[in-house]
Structure formats: structure tokens, C-alpha cells
Amino acid sequence: MKRLILSGEPAGSIPATKRLIEQEWGAKAADTAGMTEVGTIMVFECEKQPGGTHIIEDHYIEEVVDPQTGRPVGYGELGERLITSFGRGFIPVLRYRTRDLVVRVPASGCTCGRTFDLYEGGIRGRVDDMKLVRGTNVYPRAVESIVREFEEIDEFRIHLYTAEGRQDEIEVLVEIPERDGASADRIIAELGKALSQAHEGLRFGVKKVENGSLPRFELKAKRLQDDRIVIGTAGERRVTA
Ligand SMILES: [Zn+2]
Fold first, then answer.
1. How many angstroms from the chain centroid is the CA of residue 120?
2. Domain coordinates of the chain in residue numbers?
3. Residue 57 Cα, ligand 1 centroid: separation in angstroms?
4. Smallest Cα–Cα separation from 226: which of 154, 162, 145?
5. How far is the CA of 227 from the centre of ligand 1 (A)?
């Protein structure tokens, strides 16, 4: 195994996850992303591994806009990808809203010499993935990128719930195999602090769960469970997403 071409998951552009995959396989990994609507891949990571994916600009016009207003955002700003495909005979799409979140940076961000701009960090997540927890935006992918900095953590799950029927809470359940109690406690404390710092001080509960108790995924990992209660005009209902 020399090369791994990763797609369909954010893992290929999350540094710690990618490192782990490369170590386990003993091969160089590169990220790509594609969409059924345009027939094939639209971005790829070159062998310089600049921490982002080049846009295949001779096949697609890619724009980045504010998902709320639809106005263009500049280099270095998070926004939604809008694509227009040409050179592909599958389904012609014009300024198609992908719901993918990206940060576009100039081609000079890579040393390979290509003139195609980059999406720094690949596809950062989906507009629909965002969860609002006590006024703070939380993206599962951002949480994953922090959790994966802790090599001791094997599997994890993000859990949203409503405490005492009122306040939204967020917790991260982690499996930490073969650790003594003291070092597991240290990992839990450090992770809780790192998550909070990256989310405007939002309090995250971190809980150790039994090894092997969390689900494992083979395709399209879904590590967020939303059990919050939403009070609507039709009364109380429980959301599970
Ligand atoms: Zn490059």
C-alpha cells in the first residue's frame, strides 16, 4: 500500500486523524471530495499535502458565499461552496448550492506549482451540520479535530440533550482503552478544556464510557446524537438527529 485516497469523510483533512490513518497503513494519504450531482471529484490533495485540497478549476467554477445572505466571502473566510460545472456531461449545474463549508485560499498556499486555489482544511463540514448550543455554533468536524489530538481516545460520540427540561447541554463520550484511572482523568480534563476554549468558553461534559460500547462506522460516520427537547407550538417533542 503506497497511497490512500480518502473521500466521503472529513478524516482526510483532519491532521490528527490523517496521521493515524497513515501510521496504521504505512502509506501516504490524500483527501478528495466529489458529488453525485456533478459526476465525480472536484477537489484533490496533491503530494505536497499542503493541508488542503486544490480546486479542479478547469472543470468547475467554484464560488464561496455566506450561507445566509448568498454574498461572496473573501479568501480565508468560512462560507458555502457554490459550483458551476463544465466539461462534464453528467448533470449541468449552475451556481449550485452544495451546503459544504469551505475556506478558500490562494494557490500560493501550496508549493507544488499548480495554479488552482485551495480549500484549506478540505471540506470543513456541512451547513446543515451546525448545531446551536446555548448561542454557540458547534460543528461535529471541529469537535472531531480536537478529540483526535488525543491519541489515547479510541472512539467518541457527541451527545446533545436538554438538562432538567430547560437548558441545552453538550457532552462528548469517549472510550479510552487500557489507561489507569489517573491518566484517563487527565485526558478527560484536558479534552474538556480544549473543547471549551475552541467554542467561546461553552462548557462540554466529557465522560469515559466502557470500551467497545460506542458504535463503529464503516461508511459516513455519524458521531452526533441530538436528544434535545424542542418546545414548539404543537407542544413538546423530542428531536433525534
Ligand atoms: Zn499542491
1. 12
2. 3-126, 130-238
3. 13
4. 162
5. 42
Tell me the pLDDT tens digit for each residue of 119-159. Answer: 999 998 888 888 889 989 898 888 998 999 999 999 999 99
102 CA distance to ligand 1 middle (Å): 17
**CATH of the domain spanning 130-238, picked from 3.40.50.300, 3.40.50.10240, 1.10.10.10, 3.30.300.30:** 3.30.300.30
Calculate how far, in angstroms, residue 52's C-alpha sits from the geometric centre of ligand 1: 9
- 53-90 per-position pLDDT tens digit: 999 998 899 999 998 899 999 999 999 999 998 766 66
Q: Which residue has the cell 471530495?
A: 33
Pick the CATH number of 3-126 from 1.10.150.290, 3.30.70.270, 3.40.50.12780, 2.40.100.10: 3.40.50.12780
| 188 CA from centroid of ligand 1 (Å) | 37
In order of 79, 105, 150, 176, 183, the CA distances from 179 in angstroms are 40, 41, 13, 7, 6
Distance 51 CA to ligand 1 centre (A): 9
- Per-chain residues with Cβ under 5 A from ion ligand 1: 46, 48, 110, 112, 114
Confidence of residue 13 (pLDDT cuts 50, 70, 90): confident
